[in-house]
Write a structure and sequence with these properties.
The protein is mostly helical. Helix 1 crosses helix 4, helix 4 runs parallel beside helix 7 and helix 8 runs antiparallel to helix 9. The longest helix has 26 residues. The chain is elongated, with a radius of gyration of 18 Å.
């Protein structure tokens, strides 16, 4: 099941990058993935879900990591997640650059930003617990969560625009270090 889902999403990304998002049909994706269109639609109700599959999966992994974190500080869980994701993206190279596809379709950009907002809410929830008792806890947690998630989004956009995928992990870890050393110290 997961294998089929990944196979379909991978085929879609290849086609979207080769032919463009609008020019690619769901039938073509199903053919490339060697599945029936009904199978594709069972896993992905729309083309946008095909593009953002990896991001939704990554978000769910982070949610699980946060639920199982115990006493581990949120920023450490976030850093481990970011590093793992960055390595995975570096290995995938251009296929990881769904922002390139998203720029051509406004609805995709909105969906991508919605995923970022969900990450921010998870980080915020963890930071509120971690920072409980500190002066201005809620404001500090909100600013730090925003800085962590939006900062990684911003440097990711910079790296992807240069297609310098092997630089992603270091750049995103720098964001985390800045937040840890300035806001959370």
């Amino acid at each position: 099941m997961a294998r089929t889902r990944d196979q379909i999403a991978e085929a879609a990304l290849h086609l979207f990058l080769e032919r463009g998002y609008d020019a690619t049909t769901l039938e073509e994706v199903a053919d490339r993935a060697e599945v029936h269109k009904r199978t594709l639609l069972r896993y992905f109700p729309s083309k946008s879900h095909l593009v953002l599959h990896g991001y939704h999966s990554s978000l769910e992994q982070f949610r699980t990591q946060m639920e199982a974190r115990g006493d581990t500080p949120t920023v450490e869980v976030w850093q481990a997640h970011v590093e793992s994701s960055a390595r995975r993206m570096a290995r995938r190279g251009p296929l990881a650059n769904v922002r390139k596809i998203a720029r051509t379709e406004p609805a995709l950009e909105g969906a991508y930003l919605s995923i970022q907002a969900k990450y921010q809410a998870l980080v915020l929830g963890g930071l509120l617990v971690d920072l409980a008792g500190r002066e201005n806890c809620e404001i500090l947690a909100r600013v730090a969560a925003s800085a962590l998630v939006a900062g990684n989004y911003a440097v990711g956009a910079m790296i992807f625009s240069r297609e310098a995928y092997d630089e992603l992990e270091d750049a995103e870890v720098q964001v985390i270090s800045l937040v840890r050393d300035t806001l959370l110290a």
